[in-house]
Amino acid sequence: MAEKFQQIDTIIASIATLSNRTFNNILNHYNRQHSKERGSMYWNIYQKYRKANMQEEMERVGKAAATAGECFSAFKKAHKDRWEDILTVYDELDALSNIKDTNQKRKAGFLKTVNKFSSIAATASKLFGFESVICVAGNLLNADKKHLKTLELPGAQNASLV
Question: For the whole model, what pTM was predicted?
């Protein structure tokens, strides 16, 4: 079973690379599309949709203090066979609009990784006299173009590769 999960990971990583999105973004998208609990998923998406379109949703019900349930029922009735598609597209567009946040999270994670490598190398240098040159690079084309850092610790200027 571990081998099959590795194949799934490889496929998701490939899709992420081709679409210039993160592994987790693709995995979350897959889970949203193939969840067995789609009913509750649509309710959750509708909550975001309603918040963004509150006036329109209240007008659809015809009263100023309509509950979320009343609005959702009116939304489904108004859009009959298309309401699921509308909410799915809304959710995907909402996810795409949050890519900047995703990039900021990637940058923070990248910097955290660089700092961790630097700390490990500095400790190894102090304890064992190791000389270190470190290169850390992002792996998403375009999205990570600024995620590149090289570190050369003291004593590594004339180091030779083994």
Answer: 0.47
HSE (CB half, 13 Å, CA atoms) of 105?
Answer: 9
Which H or E run includes 133? strand 133-137
pLDDT at 26 over 70: yes
List beta partners, residue 148: 137
Cα separation, 33 vs 41, whole angstroms:
10
Contact 149, 121 (CB under 8 A): no
Number of domains in the chain: 3
Q: Which domain holds residue 28?
A: 1-34
The residue among 138, 153, 135 whose CA lies nearest residue 108 is 138
Write the pLDDT tens digit of every residue in 41-79: 889 999 999 999 999 999 999 887 889 999 999 999 999
Q: Are residues 92 and 42 in the same domain?
A: yes
Whether residue 132 is predicted with pLDDT greater than 70 in this model: the reply is: yes
Supply 30's token pair: 């897959």
